[in-house]
């Protein structure tokens, strides 16, 4: 046991938990003023739901001994009581479990941006619970594993690199976001009626909280307070910064303006892309990954207009595309001097690039298919989308009987009361 490692992993767990309120503010600022409470509560709902699933059976299915073929863990750790005095490396097992819990919390929260302004809160809670059980837990087992030679097929057997969640978190959530956006359909009037962010300071506050928490996300994944954590920490910072600059350069060339939303989105794109690669590349590689992610994601957010899916807050363009970029570029920029594997640009050949591509395809396809199926089933049984009148008014009042600001109470003649009762 090492007190320094234990302190670092517990601190990192707290930093990663802070990222979910960061997501809530980041997304909350981008929606209409009449939908911000709903947006924030969807993230807070993930904290509550996943934190209950995790000790019951979630940790066991994700990190328990493999049940076969590297697909899912077994149920040896149900309830987690036997782990109270067990160690993982140089720390208590419960410290490691706490850290991984925060990853499981934020991953479904990332999906919420794709369905902003039109989803029933109760339907979302059901989806989040089922998605965590059927999608996140198996994928986490595939990608992350304990050093016991008994892990999942992507990380332990295939040998694809995902240090902190490029596939398990960002590709996973991004593919699910695309599926749900298709299930729920377009917002009323979109794309002709394009909603502007109602509170850009909220967006920047959320981006700042995410950036701060991301040091726990990436550097904490080293599992110790060591040189690997320092490498991940440094690479995280420079990649995010380079991506923010790349985004606003592209934005300036394309539109003639530099926006607050662009700067924030660029930083998040860089953070997403460096997540799987932060312990495999050197600082120059981190700068390259950040620059590529910032520029490409700036273009990728426009795909929804060309392809016709309404991803409200660009989860697909930032998290799915950014996760793919970071995961695949490991095959090019990885260097053995940093992480033990050489990518193509360092004389390692094509093998690692192929492994990274297979991991991305497997996680993306599985998440999209299961997410689409879950969304369709929930939509058929209880309806996933709010009624048209509630969507027009804004979902805060009709879903939660709350308002964020002193605005007139929304009234929708189509659904709230007979027309004769309206003033």
Helix and strand content put the structural class at mainly alpha
Q: Please estimate the helix content.
A: 55-70%
Order of helices and strands: HHEEHHHHHHHHHHHHHH
Rg, alpha carbons: 21 Å
| Cross-sheet strand order for the largest sheet | 1-2
Q: How many beta-strand elements?
A: 2
Shape type: globular
CATH topology: Ammonium transporter fold
CATH architecture: Orthogonal Bundle
What is the C-level CATH assignment? Mainly Alpha
- CATH level-four homologous superfamily name: Ammonium transporter AmtB like domains
- Average pLDDT works out at 94
- Determine the strand fraction and express it as a percent band: under 5%
Give the end-to-end Cα distance, rounded to a whole number of Å: 70 Å
Number of helices: 16
Give the total of domains: 1
Largest sheet data: 2 strands, antiparallel
Low-confidence stretches: 414-423
Short account of what is shown:
This protein has 423 residues and is mainly α. Helix content is 65%, strand content 1%. It starts with a helix and ends in a 23-residue tail after the last helix.
What can you see in these coordinates?
With 423 residues, this protein is mostly helical. It is built from 16 helices and two strands. Strands 1-2 form a two-stranded antiparallel sheet. The longest helix has 31 residues, at 351-381. It is globular, with a radius of gyration of 21 Å. The chain starts with a helix and ends in a 23-residue tail after the last helix. The relative contact order is 0.15.
């Amino acid at each position: 046991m090492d007190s320094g490692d234990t302190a670092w992993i517990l601190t990192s767990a707290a930093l990663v938990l802070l990222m979910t309120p960061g997501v809530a503010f980041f997304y909350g600022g981008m929606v209409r003023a009449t939908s911000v409470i709903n947006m924030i509560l969807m993230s807070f709902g993930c904290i509550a739901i996943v934190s209950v699933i995790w000790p019951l059976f979630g940790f066991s299915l994700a990190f328990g001994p493999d049940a076969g073929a590297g697909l899912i863990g077994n149920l040896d750790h149900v309830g987690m009581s036997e782990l109270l005095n067990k160690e993982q490396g140089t720390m208590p097992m419960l410290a490691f479990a706490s850290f991984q819990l925060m990853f499981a919390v934020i991953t479904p929260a990332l999906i919420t941006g794709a369905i902003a302004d039109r989803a029933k809160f109760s339907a979302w809670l059901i989806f989040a619970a089922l998605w965590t059980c059927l999608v996140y837990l198996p994928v986490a087992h595939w990608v992350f594993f304990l050093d016991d030679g008994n892990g999942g097929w992507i990380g332990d057997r295939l040998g694809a690199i995902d240090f902190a969640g490029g596939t398990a978190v960002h590709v996973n959530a991004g593919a699910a976001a695309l599926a749900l956006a298709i299930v729920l359909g377009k917002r009323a009037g979109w794309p002709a009626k394009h909603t502007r962010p109602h509170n850009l300071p909220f967006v920047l506050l959320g981006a700042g909280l995410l950036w701060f928490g991301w040091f726990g996300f990436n550097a904490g994944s080293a599992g110790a307070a060591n040189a690997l954590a320092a490498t991940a920490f440094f690479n995280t910072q420079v990649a995010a910064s380079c991506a923010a600059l790349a985004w606003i350069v592209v934005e300036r060339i394309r539109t003639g303006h530099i926006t607050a939303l662009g700067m924030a989105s660029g930083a998040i794109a860089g953070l997403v892309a460096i997540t799987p690669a932060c312990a495999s590349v050197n600082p120059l590689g981190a700068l390259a990954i950040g620059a590529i992610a910032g520029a490409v994601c700036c273009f990728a957010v426009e795909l929804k207009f060309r392809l016709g899916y309404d991803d409200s807050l660009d989860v697909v363009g930032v998290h799915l595309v950014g996760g793919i970029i970071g995961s695949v570029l490991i095959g090019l920029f990885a260097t053995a001097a940093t992480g033990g594997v050489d990518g193509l640009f360092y004389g390692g050949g094509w093998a690692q690039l192929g492994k990274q591509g297979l991991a991305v395809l497997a996680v993306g396809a599985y998440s999209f298919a299961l997410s689409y199926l879950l969304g369709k089933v929930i939509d058929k049984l209880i309806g996933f989308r709010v009624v048209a009148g509630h969507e027009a008014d804004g979902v805060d009042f009709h879903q939660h009987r709350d308002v964020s600001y002193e605005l007139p109470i929304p009234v929708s003649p189509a659904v709230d009361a007979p027309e004769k009762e309206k003033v």
